[in-house]
């Protein structure tokens, strides 16, 4: 996609700190990291979100998440990492090219994950009936 910033990074038109690259996937540093080593794992083909992407591409991305996650643990000493996709603008997606955030964590880094709630009385069944895949 001609005006997509990540397509430009993939094409080499915009520089990036590349962590890993293969035929299907590029992994590069986020320009504004949550923690140092925060990496974006993206398909080389432009897809807006998870639903648009084909299964093969998604499998290739997960393989790369594992590779980069291992490197963050082994070489950066991260005791763990978060994987996050902001899937669509309603979920906070700003760059409209599918990307997985891989955020290395440090003990006591103070990063708070999202707040959780309780289900109301019959809410779990109602929601399940709507979304259950049979
Ligand atoms: P989103 O909110 O779409 O999930 O996150 C987009 C991410 O892309 C942000 O964390 C932002 O810092 C990163 N980003 C935006 N523009 C650039 C860029 O030109 N280069 C790099 N390396 N990262 C970018
Ligand atoms: Zn793109």
Polypeptide structure, described:
- The chain is α+β, with helices and mostly antiparallel strands and 134 residues long.
- It has one domain: HIT-like (HIT family, subunit A), CATH 3.30.428.
- Helix content is 28%, strand content 19%.
- The chain contains three helices and five strands; from the N terminus they run αβββαββα.
- The chain has a five-stranded antiparallel sheet with strand order 1-2-3-5-4, with helices on one face.
- Strand 1 and strand 2 form a beta hairpin.
- The mean pLDDT is 97.
- The structure holds guanosine-5'-monophosphate (5GP) and zinc ion.
- The site of zinc ion has 6 residues, from helix 1.
Observed structural traits:
binds guanosine-5'-monophosphate; alpha+beta; binds zinc ion; 134 residues; 19% strand; HIT family, subunit A; 28% helix; 5-stranded antiparallel β-sheet; 5 strands
Distance N to C terminus = 36 Å
What would you call the quaternary organization? single chain
Bound molecules: guanosine-5'-monophosphate, zinc ion
Identify the CATH homologous superfamily: HIT-like
Main beta sheet: 5 strands, antiparallel
User: What is the CATH architecture annotation?
Assistant: 2-Layer Sandwich
Q: Low-confidence stretches at least 5 residues in length (pLDDT < 50)?
A: none
Give the CA-based shape. Answer: globular
Q: Return the structural class.
A: alpha+beta
pLDDT average, as an integer? 97
Number of helices: 3
**Number of structural domains:** 1
């Amino acid at each position: 996609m001609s005006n997509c910033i990540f397509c430009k990074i993939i094409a080499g038109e915009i520089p990036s700190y590349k962590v890993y690259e293969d035929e299907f996937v590029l992994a590069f540093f986020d320009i504004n990291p949550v923690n140092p080593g925060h990496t974006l794992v993206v398909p080389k083909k432009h897809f807006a979100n998870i639903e648009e992407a084909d299964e093969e591409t998604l499998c290739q991305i997960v393989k790369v998440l594992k590779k980069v996650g291992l490197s963050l643990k082994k070489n950066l000493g991260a005791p763990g990492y978060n994987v996050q996709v902001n899937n669509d603008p309603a979920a906070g997606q700003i760059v409209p090219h599918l990307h997985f955030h891989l955020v290395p964590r440090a003990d006591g880094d103070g990063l708070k994950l999202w707040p959780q709630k309780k289900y109301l009385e019959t809410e779990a069944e109602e929601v399940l009936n709507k979304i259950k895949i049979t």
